[in-house]
Fold this sequence. Notes:
By secondary structure, the chain is mainly beta. It has helices at 2-16, 26-32, 36-39; strands at 21-23, 43-46, 50-64, 67-81, 86-91, 98-101, 111-116, 122-125, 129-131, 134-139, 142-146, 155-158. A 7-stranded antiparallel beta sheet has the order 1-12-2-5-6-7-8, with no helix packed on it. The protein has a 5-stranded antiparallel beta sheet with strand order 4-3-11-10-9, with no helix packed on it. Strand 10 (134-139) and strand 11 (142-146) form a beta hairpin.
Amino acid sequence: MKTFFYLLCSLLILSSCAPKLSVYTKDLHNSLNLSQEDTRKIQFYLNRDLVLERANDLEEAHIKDGKITLSTQRDMERVVIPAKTRGVALFSPDGKKLAVSFDPGSDEKFLIFGPNPKMDNRYMLYASEWQRNFGIVTYGGGKYRTLPGAERTTLMVVLNSLNRQKVQSRTERGRRP
């Protein structure tokens, strides 16, 4: 029983050390007034898992004994970016959106995020087109289709707040005629 109690206490202490993530919004972006170089220093995170898929269909025709046999092979390429994956802004294509890379080995693999006025100006995944509940995005030079739920993918940041207040105080003694 003591072991369970110590394990529970350890988990509570460790979980309290985890960074608190906040949604990255247009208001926060504008209030920081950062240069593009400063924006590259921010550590971004995803709020949810993001899955990108691309299918390559290959068709071959075989002729044997006067019969044509068509064979179709589908190769699926899947990119999974788990929730809370670290990302870095590479550039801003238009001064408002951010190109964020989650791949440590390539600056060519990035996704575009921009403020969505319908969602309190949160920086959300930007797709070239949305069809029902999936989008078409460009990643590493190729077109990928997102799985359902990607339209709610948001950028997050660790936001610490320091409140400093300087108070100058004096006590008036009163005044006589």
